[in-house]
Structure formats: C-alpha cells, structure tokens
Amino acid sequence: MPVTLLSVQKVAVRYGAIQAVENAELAVAAGEIVTLLGANGAGKSSLLNACMGLVPLAGGQVHFDGQRISGTRTEHVVRRGMTLTPEGRRVFPGLSVADNLAIGAAASPQLRRETAARRTEMYDLFPRLHERQKQLAGTLSGGEQQMLAIARSLMSNPKLLLLDEPSLGLAPNIVDQIFDIIAALRARGVTILLVEQNAELALDIADRGYVLAGGRIVLSGTPGELRASGLERVYLGAH
Ligand SMILES: Nc1ncnc2c1ncn2[C@@H]1O[C@H](COP(=O)(O)OP(=O)(O)OP(=O)(O)O)[C@@H](O)[C@H]1O
Ligand SMILES: [Mg+2]
Q: How far is it, in rounded angstroms, from Cα 122 to Cα 135?
C-alpha cells in the first residue's frame, strides 16, 4: 500500500458568513500527482491555504506524513515537508532571482545551510533562472516568474508540493514547459497536489482527481472516471 502523505478530513473554511469549504475529504499518497479541479470561487485555494495553515480551519483536521498539522504554524508545515506555490506567481519583485530562492530555504537553520546546494539544483531544473540569477524578479516575464515561484517552493526540499494554478495567464508553450517540470518533479520523487483551471491538461498528467463545487468535493476518481462523468463541463465551464 502506498503511504498516505496528505489526509484532509472533514475540513471547513469560513470567512465570516462565507462558507468557502465544507466537509472536504481528500487524500494524496506518496508518488502521486493528484489534481483538484473546480470553477472560480469553488474553494480550491482556500483548501490549499487551509492545509498550509495560512487560513484557520473552521472544522476538521489535516494530517501530513503521519502527523496532525492542522493548528500548527505554516513554518512547521514547511519544515515537515509540505509547501505551496500560491496562485498569482507571487515573487519578491525588488529582489534578485537568487535572493528569492534563498527566501524559500528560510524556514529552518538546516534548510538555510543547504541554500547553495539547493539553488544549484534549481538552476539545473530551471536553466532560464540560472541565466537570470542576478535579475530582479519583478523584471522577469510572467512564465519566468511562475518558474521562480515554483523553484522557491522547492527550495525547502518538500515531499509534497501544492501548486495553485501554475498555468494561469501563461502562453501555451510556457504552460507546456511548466507541465514538463511537474512531470520531472514527480520523477524526482516529489508528490504533487495540483489545482488547475485547465482540466484537460491536469487530467492528462494526474493519477487521480477531485472536483470541488460550492466548497464541497462533488466527485473524485481517476482521470478516465472524471472525464466519463462529464461533470467537469458543468464545474469548469469547459467548452
Ligand atoms: N480572504 C477572504 N475573505 C473573504 N472571502 C474569501 C476570502 N478568500 C476567498 N474568499 C471567498 O471564498 C470562496 C472560495 O474562494 P477560493 O479563492 O478558495 O476559490 P478558488 O476555487 O480558488 O477560485 P479561483 O479559481 O478563482 O482561484 C469565494 O467565494 C471567495 O470569494
Ligand atoms: Mg484560487
């Protein structure tokens, strides 16, 4: 049996009167790529942020790698081996590529000691970032900023990477490059939970998927099962 890395049990997220996530159940096993699909406002980012401890849980529990992590601080979650590349490729625009990467390794003294070695690995994985290591992040193209955002998350050497809409707003050839990198990461042993608007692309690469609608998981299964259900049309507004 594969080891369950992430287990989300009956998770709820509320913002005042808004119920963003309700009773969500989700699991990711080591080595998997799992995709979380859903329309705008379905609660995808809220669920990822709740796993990271970035928004409080209104109910339920999250376990990672055999330990309960809900209720702990985000730095603790990162040190345990789970990290998030947030929506909107947030980089520090006034800092260089190299300094942005260093921030990704700031969660513990041990990670900080490994900064140089990890950065070399990231430059290997993202040659464009290598060429631009001294460039200010704010002057990178959108695709390069997304690569930097992913590389920065990988600086903490995660077992599980949560990716929130990595392809949003990027040209098709850059999207292909990002998906090639996702496949390369899996080959390197990184487990991935991928939130995507582009259901087709996500289902092509994923082992399993979940569909969120109105804050609830309404469907889960293999890519074949999800495609056969036709539900992604309803929930994703696919054409
Ligand atoms: N900080 C916040 N305060 C109040 N409401 C919020 C907050 N963040 C999200 N929401 C609301 O919670 C619901 C779910 O939002 P969320 O960002 O999780 O959706 P999403 O599935 O990630 O959408 P998208 O595909 O547009 O990124 C939405 O109705 C949104 O308006
Ligand atoms: Mg979102």
A: 16
Q: Determine which residue's CA is closest to atom 4 belonging to ligand 1.
A: 15
Q: What is the pLDDT of residues 109-120, one digit of tens each?
A: 998 999 999 999
Helix, strand, or coil (residue 90): coil
Cα Rg for the chain, rounded, in angstroms? 17
Mutate which of 14, 26, 45 for ligand 1 pocket (most atoms within 8 A of beta carbon): 45
Residue 238 has pLDDT above 50, yes or no: no
> What is the C-alpha separation between 173 and 124, in angstroms, rounded?
20
pLDDT in the model for residue 146? 95
Protein residue with its CA nearest to atom 28 in ligand 1: 41
Domains by residue range for the chain, with CATH: 1-70+160-166+193-239 (3.40.50.300)
